[in-house]
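Report of the visiting student (M.T.), summer placement. My assignment was to run the structure pipeline on a short list of targets and document each run. The first record concerns Globin domain-containing protein.
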Amino acid sequence: MNDTNRVMQSYGRCCASPRFFDDFYATFLASSPTIREKFARTDMTAQKQLLRAGILNLVLFARGMPDTKLRALGQSHSRAQLDIHPELYDLWIDALLKTIGQHDEDLQQADLQAWRAVLNKGIDVIKAAY
Ligand code: HEM
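After the run finished, the structure tokens were exported:
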């Protein structure tokens, strides 16, 4: 199976797990005080829904969709706006892969490698706008 199909199926299993996004943000916020500060005034219920779509956009881009949505995310996360330093995406990926491991009960080693490749491709677009 190719990387993006592996990731789509794994993501489907994660989204079917009710606490997936709660656990992702708990892990991500715990990973650094800088990240906690960035989300200090955020409505986290809304943020979880936004992230659900945001991850889908990363996957769709890796499947060949144009980069329009990711360039917009790059703008909102850039130095001039949210000021999300490129290094913080490593913590984001670590937290996401850890959470996937906790919620995808059919996860195989090859799925994790596929996730890494798919996420990095889109995150490179977002970081390039910093
Ligand atoms: C807002 C997705 C990485 C911090 C958002 C939004 C989306 C999103 C869809 C709402 C729309 C927008 O503002 O453009 C993503 C995706 C990421 C990512 C897909 C990974 C590729 C990060 C990282 C941080 C971060 C690493 C670091 C702290 C924030 C903050 C907001 C935000 C602070 C605004 C929250 C608020 O409205 O109070 N993100 N994000 N994001 N993101 Fe990200």
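The domain at 1-126 is CATH 1.10.490.10 (Globin-like). The pocket of protoporphyrin IX containing FE is lined by residues 35, 38-39, 41-42, 47, 50-51, 54-55, 58, 73, 76-77, 82, 84, 88-89, 92, 123, 126 (CB under 6 Å). I thank the supervising group for their guidance throughout the placement.
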